[in-house]
Structure formats: C-alpha cells, structure tokens
Design goal:
The chain has helices spanning 21-30, 32-35, 49-65, 111-125, 140-148; strands at 5-6, 11-15, 69-75, 78-89, 95-102, 130-136, 152-163, 166-176. It is an alpha+beta fold and 179 residues long. It has an 8-stranded mixed sheet with strand order 1-2-3-4-5-6-8-7, with helices on both faces. Pfam families: Acetyltransf_3.
Length: 179
C-alpha cells in the first residue's frame, strides 16, 4: 500500500512509520482496558514508549522485506487503531493473517469494516491469494466486520490462542482474493 486512504471523519489508514512508536504506545495505554479481553495479557513494560519504538521499527523492516503489511489508523496526530497483515507466506500458499483493533471511543462508526477493506486491497496489490483471521467465539462484532468484508467461516480452532490469560477457542475465517 503506497498511499494513505481516508476512511471517514478524518481517519486515515497508512503504513506504519518508524516514528510512530510513541503514538502507538499512547494508543495502547489509552485502550488498555478496551483491548484486554481480546488480546494476550500484557505486562506493564508493554505500555512503555521504548517497546513501541522498537516494534514500529521492526514492522517497517517486515514491510520492506515483504513479510507484513502493518497499517495504522490515524486521526490528526493520534493513532486510533491498527490493521495488520502478518505472516505473509509466498510460494504455493500466498497467504496472510489479518488482525485489527479500533480505539474504544471510535467503535461503532464502521471504521474497522473500512480498514479491513483497505487491508484486503493491499493484500490484492501484494498478489496474495488468501487472507485468514480468527476471532474469539463470543466476539460477534469482529465476526460481523469480517463477514461484511466477504470472509467465510471455515472452522473452529480449539484453545487456539492464549487471550486474556487463558487458552480460548477461535472461529476461523478466510477470504479468497480472486472472488
């Protein structure tokens, strides 16, 4: 994805930049409680600027290497969400994993649906065949975002990821990009 894409109300999706670390750390601190039920347990150190400075630089390297498409949602100077295509695999698979979140104060505006659409466009530009995602079984909002973007359910992964301190089942989704 080469150019930023404006979504709605001044929110822009763009590729993460090395200088985004402090704003990313602030976004995670601001959304700590909002994200806690949906993410791995985070140590106090996770919320430090230095951690996200390193993470932003690492994501830029992955993007340049073609192994990830790390995107941020930005409103003014604030990062208000993320959408990532990670674990890009080439060869016979041509697949990536999708993950995303939206700032607590900006949910319910359709931003996640639009941002996932932008990520799918970037996946097509990268010549991927397939994108897959998993949601917690009880995460109806995230499932709706995927379904609005043409994803199909294809399975249930038992004790798939350790989220909020315990192994939890996930519904698996896929989107074939030639459709």
């Amino acid at each position: 994805m080469h150019n930023p894409v404006e979504l709605d109300g001044g929110v822009v999706v763009r590729v993460i930049e090395a200088g985004d670390g402090p704003a990313l750390a602030e976004a995670y601190r601001r959304n700590r409680e909002h994200l806690a039920p949906w993410e791995p347990e985070r140590s106090e150190g996770f919320f430090a600027d230095a951690v996200h400075v390193r993470e932003a630089a690492a994501f830029v390297e992955r993007y340049e290497a073609g192994t990830a498409i790390p995107l941020v949602l930005v409103e003014g100077e604030e990062i208000v969400g993320r959408v990532n295509l990670s674990d890009l695999v080439r060869g016979a698979f041509q697949n990536a994993h999708l993950g995303y979140w939206i700032d607590a104060e900006r949910t319910g505006r359709g931003l996640a649906t639009m941002a996932v659409g932008v990520a799918l466009h970037a996946a097509r530009e990268a010549k991927l065949h397939r994108v897959q995602a998993g949601t917690l079984v009880h995460n109806a909002a995230s499932q709706a975002v995927l379904e609005r973007n043409g994803f199909d359910r294809f399975g249930l992964a038992h004790r798939y990821l350790r989220i909020a301190g315990r192994w939890q089942d996930h519904i698996l989704f896929e989107r074939l990009l030639e459709d």
